[in-house]
Specification:
single chain, about 575 residues, alpha/beta, ABC transporter transmembrane region fold, Rossmann fold
């Protein structure tokens, strides 16, 4: 938590001036009851209208000054908290972006999203409330007692005895409600997970007639959340009556003893009014302080989550400086006895092969054979656990990230489209591309045929996640995006799995013509989609079962013959 305090350093002025102006507001607020005493005792009691107007004007001026101080504090608090949240969120996003896919997978999208949004927002609110209330609430409590002592120390004893009762009452309620609040937050998270799963998997749920079961699961989660909320509500409902009881008791004692003192001439009527006001001030200040404690409890939890994310250092070092000199005669890709595993076991083992420049290489194998892992290592989404990968003769670890992304572009099987237009989505990898280049890439990917039929064509809107397009349409837009990037090595990771055989064949033909002399790697489950490739890599349980032409593999690779037999 304290590691995040340095984000407030640029706002030191706001963090000092904000509480200072709030202190001025508290001083003006504490002086008002005393002025009321003077007005009642010396003005109203003596029927001195001029004195009443004089003190009344002074009270108005002090109220205006207090209001101006409060607004000024609010300005500084908003400036500091918003700036703190903005800088923290930007740094956290940059840090998350620097983590490897392995680390991102370990955290999960939902957790990262919550830490970037909800947790940062909680910390931001904590900064704002700390500037506004951390100094004011204790000062009001102490100041009210001091002012009461100045007015009448005997009657002030009632406030001195009542204040610990207020504090004890609020402490008990805070102690009881804080754990319940944490349970309630976890319950909200669980309900959110259930809702997300039901909405994301609605087709599967309906297809297998599981709607009643899922409704019961949601009801159980919702009922549990409701029970926790009712317990919180019950505790909160008791807080106001009990605090009011203590306040009324204190006021009753003030009126009782104060009335007797007025009768004996040792106390003026206006002082009783001031004492009632000071009791109210203490109550309000302590309630604000209890809310602040609850907020700080949430901030502590959020701070730990954010700090934990910052403490997670990237496990993939990025090369810096200029690109190493490449050997123009070196193979495009070299796997030098590469091993890789996701943690539980080896996904690839002893991969040793070369892909020459300008070759079209097909990658095929059964489910779980390591095809996607193989191409992910070429794009350096993960680092190998053993061995080395070289691109153009340069170890992949020595290539700066931006140069690597310009050299290798991948179109995954599951295409993610961004909100915007179709043209914007195709231009993701090359923002300066002209409209003609966008259309040419779409034609190569066989996407132009459906894009040009849409109202608006390439300016047609893409809804969130591309839900207004079919799986095959999304894949073709993804391939167009990768083609437009114009990388030295183009990887299509089963990016045509949703296409029919005819469209797939036309796409491969267009790619071959457009990328003549450049390296293309095609991953596919269909043997027909890669049998015309210059070389075919056959993977079986993370090992190379064969690497050669279609004809040679038919003769020498049993695993390849089995694949052909199952697809005959």
């Amino acid at each position: 938590m304290w590691k995040l305090v340095h984000y407030l350093k640029p706002y030191r002025k706001e963090c000092i001036l904000g509480p200072l102006f709030k202190l001025f507001e508290a001083i003006f607020e504490l002086l008002l009851p005393t002025l009321m005493v003077l007005m009642v005792n010396n003005g109203v009691g003596r029927h001195d209208r001029a004195y009443v107007l004089h003190i009344g004007l002074l009270m108005v001026i002090m109220a205006i000054c207090g209001c101006a101080s409060a607004f000024t504090c609010q300005f500084f608090a908003a400036r500091a908290s918003q700036g703190f949240g903005t800088v923290l969120r930007n740094d956290l996003f940059r840090h998350v972006s620097s983590l490897s896919l392995r680390q991102l997978d370990a955290y999960g999208t939902e957790t990262l999203t919550n830490r970037l949004t909800n947790d940062v927002n909680t910390l931001q609110a904590g900064v704002a409330m700390a500037i506004r209330l951390l100094v004011r609430s204790p000062f009001i409590c102490i100041g009210a007692i001091v002012m009461a002592l100045i007015l009448n120390w005997k009657l002030a004893l009632i406030l001195i005895f009542a204040t610990p009762l207020f504090a004890l009452l609020l402490f008990v309620f805070t102690k009881l409600s804080t754990p319940l609040y944490r349970v309630y937050q976890k319950g909200l998270d669980h309900v959110a997970v259930v809702v997300r799963e039901n909405l994301a998997g609605v087709r599967v749920i309906r297809a297998f007639a599981k709607v009643p079961q899922k409704k019961r699961r949601f009801s159980e989660s919702n009922d549990s959340l409701t029970a926790t909320a009712l317990r919180l509500g019950g505790i909160s409902a008791l807080l106001n009556p009990l605090t009011t009881l203590v306040v009324d008791a204190a006021i009753l004692f003030v009126l009782w003893f104060g009335g007797r003192m007025v009768g004996h001439g040792t106390l003026m009527k206006g002082e009783i009014i001031a004492f009632v006001n000071y009791i109210t001030y203490i109550l309000i200040a302590l309630i604000a302080l209890s809310n602040l404690i609850i907020l700080f409890t949430r901030c502590a939890a959020s701070g730990r989550r954010v700090t934990e994310l910052f403490d997670c250092q990237p496990d993939m070092e990025q090369a810096e400086g200029k690109v190493s000199v490449r050997d123009e005669h070196a193979p495009a890709v070299v796997f030098d006895h590469v091993d890789f595993g996701y943690g539980g076991g080896k996904a690839l083992e002893d991969i040793n092969l070369e892909i020459q420049r300008g070759q079209t290489v097909g990658v095929i194998g059964g489910t779980g054979s390591g095809k996607s892992t193989f191409v992910s290592l070429i794009a350096r989404f993960y680092d190998v656990t053993k061995g080395e990968i070289r691109l153009g003769g340069v170890p992949i670890r020595q290539l700066p990230d931006m140069d690597l992304r310009r050299s290798v572009c991948i179109a995954p099987q599951k295409t993610v489209l961004l909100t915007g237009t179709i043209a914007d989505n195709i231009r993701v990898g090359r923002q300066d591309a002209t409209d003609e280049q966008v259309k040419e890439a779409a034609q190569i990917a066989q996407a132009a045929e459906f894009i040009e039929k849409l109202p608006g064509g390439y300016t047609a809107r893409v809804e969130r996640g591309g839900t207004n397009f079919s799986g095959g349409q999304r894949q073709r837009i993804g391939v167009a995006r990768a083609v437009l990037a114009d990388a030295d090595i183009l990887i299509l990771d089963d990016a045509s799995s949703a296409l029919d055989y005819s469209t797939d064949a036309r796409m491969r033909g267009a790619l071959r013509r457009a990328r003549a002399g450049r390296t293309t790697i095609l991953v596919s489950q269909r043997a027909a989609s890669i049998q015309d490739a210059d070389r075919i890599l056959v993977l079986d349980n993370g090992r190379v079962a064969g690497f050669g032409t279609h004809e040679s593999l038919q003769k020498e690779c049993p695993a390849y013959r089995d694949i052909l037999a199952t697809q005959a």
